[in-house]
Design a protein that fits this description.
CATH topology of the domain at 16-57 and 74-117: Aldehyde Oxidoreductase, domain 3
CATH architecture of the domain at 16-57 and 74-117: Alpha-Beta Complex
Order of helices and strands: EEHEEEEHE
Number of strands: 7
Strand order of the largest sheet: 3-6-1-7
Structural class: alpha+beta
CATH superfamily of the domain at 16-57 and 74-117: Ribosomal protein L16/L10
Strand content: 25-35%
Oligomer: single chain
CATH class of the domain at 16-57 and 74-117: Alpha Beta
Number of helices: 2
Length: about 120
């Protein structure tokens, strides 16, 4: 995947978010682990939006199988993420709570991220 995100690169729902700085595939398990980490820290206050969805099927062939004989069976689903893509948004919580919650969530993801704040946000 080359290039930057053409869509989903601005905050649309919340006041804070994490933005991807590199290209990677995110699996459903990785996204769910990040979501759980964020909601645990926020203690069910505020609101959270997941802006990526794993809808790209990934196939693979079993180990030690000869070439040919068609495409492999679906292995799972991923969400392709390019630089600039907003992954998670948070709203309805103070700045310091959102920053720490999103830091904990970003640790669960295989991409480097950046904390972003809505332009018109006032503390």
């Amino acid at each position: 995947m080359k290039g930057n995100a053409q869509r989903g690169h601005q905050l649309a729902f919340g006041s804070f978010g994490i933005k991807s700085l590199q290209s990677k595939w995110l699996t459903g398990n990785q996204i769910e682990a990040a979501r759980i980490a964020v909601t645990r820290y926020m203690q069910r206050q505020g609101q959270i939006w997941i802006r990526v969805f794993p809808d790209k099927p990934i196939t693979s062939k079993p180990a030690e199988v000869r070439m040919g004989k068609g495409k492999g069976a679906p292995e799972g689903f991923v969400a392709p993420v390019t630089p600039g893509r907003i992954i998670i948004e948070v709203g309805g919580v103070p700045y310091d709570v959102a920053k720490e919650a999103l830091r904990l969530g970003a640790q669960k993801l295989p991409v480097t991220t950046k904390f972003v704040v809505r332009r018109d946000y006032e503390a």
